[in-house]
Specification:
Length: 361
């Protein structure tokens, strides 16, 4: 196994985490990583290719098999896209026999553009699912999150429009409003809006369910955002039917979903909190204050909620509310995620990307 891993650029190096666990470096490449995700036993990352190589999505299984997407021989926009032009998002669904990946490519010019594209390990040709564009004032479509787990792979869009376009064109008010949007589910090489869903600013998936933060207001630059005290919804991943709804204290900015835990990061004034709920009943299970600098990029399983403050990675015990340090990354973690008991993230150190894991006790 070690010889196989070395042959495909995988290294296994271990250092102690601050919690007493062992942080392992399971991959180290020659260039930076732009996005990271994991599901079940599969780790995935978007590697920026630079001038001499294509950008590529790598899927690494627990057995050491490394699949690269999309096919370079096929027509695709991923290969030579300017990855440095904006944030890249990645989600995977490790379905039995064929892992599906969904990623975004961002460009900012006279209009802001996000392509939503994907491929599967079995059918590696790239498929473009959506072209999401809005103008510099904010009117148009905004990308609203991406998530995947098992057989559920989804993305969201939010439509922002002028309250009165005629008034704006004649020199009057150019106020904006949230006008629509939906959560889209990808199945194979097709996607469709889930029934009864609306605009969203973030998504999470677990156990055949989808959690979303509805887009209800327009912020600076037309950016869709949640309402202060607005709800976070848990839906059936196939029908879109709402299973439960919670109302965190403040503006919800980040969510994580596990089979029996829904975690929400919310901000109100100078206060930042992480609260967690039973996703079946919406019952509040706990809430803790966290530092204002806490990233909205949180993760959860049924035992802990993981968050980061800069490079410091910490966990909240959902039973006791106790916060403990887990590890300190060498650089800002990318795509912090938790699947069962494995915490994983990517980081770039001096232009070199690597994937790191920590098994939680």
């Amino acid at each position: 196994m070690r010889l196989l891993l070395a042959a495909i650029g995988i290294v296994v190096a271990a250092v102690s985490g601050t919690s007493g666990g062992v942080v392992q470096t399971v991959y180290q490449g020659s260039g930076p990583i732009a996005a990271f995700a994991q599901d079940d036993s599969v780790l995935a990352w978007v590697a920026a290719g630079g001038r001499s190589r294509c950008n590529a999505v790598h899927l690494l299984s627990a057995a050491g098999a490394n699949t690269t997407l999309p096919k370079t021989a096929s027509d695709n926009v991923t290969c030579r896209w300017s990855i440095g032009g904006g944030p890249v998002r990645l989600a995977i669904a490790a379905q039995a026999g064929d892992t599906a990946a969904l990623w975004t490519l961002h460009q900012t010019a006279q209009v802001s553009l996000d392509y939503v594209v994907g491929a599967t390990a079995r059918h590696q040709a790239e498929r473009r699912f959506a072209q999401v564009t809005h103008n510099n004032a904010g009117a148009g479509l905004w990308f609203g999150g991406i998530a995947g787990s098992s057989s559920t792979l989804v993305y969201a869009t939010t439509e922002v429009a002028y309250v009165d376009q005629v008034d704006c064109l004649s020199g009057g008010s150019c106020a904006l409003k949230v006008a629509g949007g939906a959560i889209h589910r990808v199945v194979g090489r097709a996607d469709q809006p889930l029934p009864d869903t609306g605009p969203a600013v973030d998504l999470a998936v677990a156990a055949g369910r989808i959690a979303d933060i509805p887009a209800a207001a327009v912020g600076p630059g037309g950016l869709p955002q949640a309402a202060d005290g607005g709800s976070v919804q848990v839906r059936d991943g196939t029908t879109g039917t709402i299973v439960s709804e919670v109302a965190p204290d403040g503006v919800a900015q980040g969510i994580a979903l596990a089979p029996h835990v829904l975690a929400v990061l919310a901000r109100t004034g100078a206060k930042t909190t992480i609260s967690w709920y039973d996703p079946d009943t919406a019952r509040l299970l706990g809430i803790e204050k966290v530092p204002p600098q806490t990233s909205a990029d949180i993760a959860a399983n049924d035992t802990v909620v993981v968050f980061r403050v800069g490079r410091a990675i910490r966990a909240i015990d959902v039973g006791t509310g106790t916060i403990r340090a887990l590890a300190t990354a060498a650089a800002t973690p990318i795509g912090l995620s938790l699947d069962d008991g494995r915490l994983a993230w990517a980081e770039n150190v001096k232009g070199v990307g690597r994937v790191r894991t920590l098994q939680l006790g």
